[in-house]
Amino acid sequence: MDHTEDKPISSHIEHKTGSGEVAHLDDYERHSTEHEYDPAFVKRTIRKLDIRLLIILGAMYSIALIDRTNLSSARVAGMNVELDLNVGERYSIATLVFFVPYIIFEFPSNILLRKIGARNLLSSITILWGAATLAIAFVKNWQSLVGLRVVLGFFEAGFFPGCVYLLSSWYTRWRTQTRISLFYLMSMFISGLSQILAYGLIQIPRAGMVHTWRWIFLVLGAFTMALGVLSIFLIIDFPDKNTFLTAEETEMVMTMLDKDRGDATPDVMTRGKVIKHMTCWRTWCYGLCFMNSTLPSYAFAYFLPVILAGQGYSQVAALCLSAPPYAAAAIYTFCIAISSDKLRKRGLFVCVNAVVTVVGCSIIGYAKNKDVRYFGCFLAIMGAQANVPSVLAFQANNTVTHTKKSVSSAIVIGMGGVGGIMASTVYRQADFPRYIPGLWATIGAQLFTIVLVGILTVFNGRFNRRLDKGEVPPIQGIEGFRYSI
C-alpha cells in the first residue's frame, strides 16, 4: 500500500514539550495554534483571503446557478408554448440532460484543477458555459435546447467541485463551513432574485427573433462571458502556488493549515491513492447526504414558479414571489454556519436542516390555503439550501490530503448531480400542480439523510475513541487528527 502521503504530513503536527518529549496536538490545540501569531495579523490575512476568494467565486457561482435553472423562468414566460415543452415530459428531459455530463466530468475536472491551475480552469469554463447559455436564446425547437443543455452541463461540471476544493484548501476546518456558506449564500441570494430579473428581461421590446423569454438567455449568457473574462484577473490559486499573499502571510497560512490537518503541502497523486479514496464508504455517505440536499434545492429552483402558478398565483406573482424564500434561506444558512463552526458540530445541524425541509414539504403538499403553502416553500427552501454547505463542510472536515480532497469533493458534488436528476424525474408534469409524489420523494430523502448522519456519527465517534486508546493507526497518518461529528 502506498504511504507516501503520510510521511511528510505527520511531521508538521508534532511539537516538543518542556521535557523534550514529543506531544501530539489534539483537535482543539491544533486549531488554537494560530494564536502564536499576532491576532491582528491573522485577522487581516483571513479578511484579505475572504474578500479575494469569496466575492468572485460567489458571483461566478451565482450566475452558474441562474444559467442552469433559468428554464423555469423561461417556461413561465413563453418557452413552454413556443418550443412545445408542455408535450409529455419534454421539460423534465431538458432539465435532466444537464446533469449527465455534469456528473461524468466533475472528477476529471478536479484532477485537472491542480495541473492547470484554478484561475485558468475556472475562468475558461465560465466563458464557455456563458457562450452555451447565450446560444439557447436562438434555439428554434426543443431538441436544440436539449443539445445545448448537454453542452452547458459539460462546461459547468468542474466549477462547483473546483470551488469547494479550492476553498477547503485555504481555510482551517472550523472556519470552513462559514466560508462555504458565505460563498453559497451569496449565490443563493442572487440566484433567488433571478425570477424577478427574468420578469424584467422579458419586458424588453422585440429585436428581430429575440423576444420575451429569449432575452433571459441572451443577456445572462453575455454577462456570464464578461464575468469569466474578469475572473482571469481575480481568481487566486492554491496556497502553495499563490502569488497574492506576501511571503509572511503565505507562511502563516501554510503553518496554520499544517497544524490544523497536516495537508498544506499537496501530496503526490497516484492511481493507488485515487482508487483507495474512491472506495471510502464515508465519502459515499457524504455523497448520498449531498444528493438528498440537492434534490429539493434543484426541485424548487426548477419548479417553484410552476408550483406557485399552479396554486393560483398570476405569472407576475409566481415569478416575483419566488425570490423571498431564497432571501430568508440566505439568512438562515448563514446562522446555521456560524452556529456549526462555533459549536464544532456538523451532523447535528445537517439533521436539523433535514427536519425543516420535511416540515416545509408537508405544508406545501397538504395545507389548504395557498398562502400557508407559500410559507411552506420558505421552510423547505431554507432547510434544503442550508444543507448544501452543511454537508460540504461535514465532508471537508473529515477529508485530509489534496488527493482525497480532489476525489471526495468530485464524488460528493457528483452525487449532487444525481439529486438534480431525481428532481427532474420525480416532479412530473402528470402531477401538476401539487406534485405530491415529488414532495414525498423529497421527504423520504431527508429522512434518509438523518439515518446516514446517525451511521456516520456512531462509526466516527467509535473510531475516535479507538484512536484515543491507541487501538488503530492515525487517520491518513496524521497524529491527533479526529473525525468531526
UniProtKB/TrEMBL annotation:
Cell location: Membrane
Q: Tell me what topology the record assigns in the membrane.
A: Multi-pass membrane protein
Which of UniProt's keywords are assigned here?
Answer: Membrane, Transmembrane, Transmembrane helix, Transport
Assign the protein's first listed, main location to one coarse class: membrane
Q: Does the keyword Transmembrane apply?
A: yes
- Start and end residues of each Major facilitator superfamily (MFS) profile domain: 53-462
Listed under GO cellular component are: membrane
**Entry GO MF terms:** transmembrane transporter activity
Q: What is this protein called?
A: Major facilitator superfamily (MFS) profile domain-containing protein
Give TM segment ranges: 53-71, 91-113, 120-139, 145-168, 180-202, 214-236, 283-304, 316-335, 347-367, 373-394, 406-427, 439-459
